[in-house]
Amino acid sequence: MKKKSIIREGKVVGLNFPNKGIVQTDDGICVVKNTIPGQTVSFFSKRKRAGVPQGVLVDIIEKSVIETLEGCRHFRTCGGCVYQTVPIEEEDALKEKMVKDILASVVSNFPESAAEGYFEDIVSSPVHSSYRNKMEFSFGDMVKGGEMCLGMHVTGHFNDVVTVDDCNIAEADMVEILKATLDFAKKTGLPFLNKRSHEGYFRHLLVRKGRYTGEILVDLVTTSQFEPDLNEYVKSLNGLKLEGEIVGILNTLNNSLGDAVINEDTRILYGRDHFYDEILGLKFRINPFSFFQTNTLGAEVLYKKVREFAGELNVNTLFDLYCGTGTITQLMADCAKNVVGVELVEEAVEAAKINAENNGLHNIKFLAGDVGEILSNLEELPDMIIVDPPREGMTPKALEKVVSYGVKNIVYVSCKITSLARDLPEFFKAGYSLKRAVPVNMFPRTTGVETVTLLINQNAKAKHHVRVGIDAEDYYRIKDSEKKEDE
Predict the structure, then answer these.
(1) Quick check: is 415 catalytic?
(2) Which residue among 30, 149, 167, 415 is the active-site one?
């Protein structure tokens, strides 16, 4: 006989990264995700992990005193946001404490490897709502056999989807495009893809918008099992009254079994297959699947911190590892004689080359391939390194190679603090110390937080090529004046 789940209650007394509430009950501690310190919650026990009971949230019995805001009407159903009910200052404080505690736990094992006062106050995003320039919506239903929905997966129920037509982190134009797309899908009478039978047509809707340009790219992701007339879809989107301008409408075919969007073929239904946006005065051409930070204004804050941590540059060759479409690479182009960007995704590297050419930057070289493999075969030696790896952090081979260069300064940008915490001891063992660390709240209302760190090797040997650069304050003063002249 299947054991019946027992509903329990407790008080949230703490929070571990990224969203693990520490709940105190009469029977001890339990970890319950998507909770906020100060709440009284009900939950049922699920399993133990590392000896600690895990629970699944059932209800918020009593709100925390810091919850003074109302969330959108999808809040707690949609799995996208956690902190809609708390002021941004409280959210920043929660994220800052989680990052600080994790770094402190690492540093405690290497007490001589961190400068006094290395940790700095969190930097918040300039915008806290309607900030996302990219949304990937899924087709599905809320209940099995129910009405078609288009939106985000329901919290804790990956097969269920809620239509998020009141999303407060997506641009308003994206919500209008979502509603028009769902209306069209329903009118066709065609089904969404069933994850079990693998039969159906509609899969995802990808919408991207330039924050500075207002250009919008729409990509309807489907299977090839049906061939409806998509001209009606194009007409319906072009008839919308939007703040921005749709410059491209695409149809990507994806017959893969997994839920991820796989580009097997993309057809242009209208306009072009790319749009443009800007970051700190540089222009970027962005394709449907190109990596580009989802919060443009937040990314500018992040990249300014990277530039600040890099400091007064005196380098001949700078490596930007895990460079994506080369955003940081290009922003550092006038601070080194040679800049080398390395990225695994070949499509991203090709986009990076085009963007660098369009921005008139000719001292950059982009290489496609695994970072560890590329570094093992690269004859050039860096004077400085910037790394911005994916969530899982650096690969062991890449980490070993980066450490072996022995450069004086390394700026490590992390989108998952636990991955950074795993990598830091290897730097400490190699003689690096943690000079500065700052969290950046790039993704308000969600669990996401970036961390920028500066690692210094006092025993590094001086390089034989030197180019005197400019410091961060002068860099942005010059950039701002050039932008005003262009305007």
Answers:
(1) yes
(2) 415
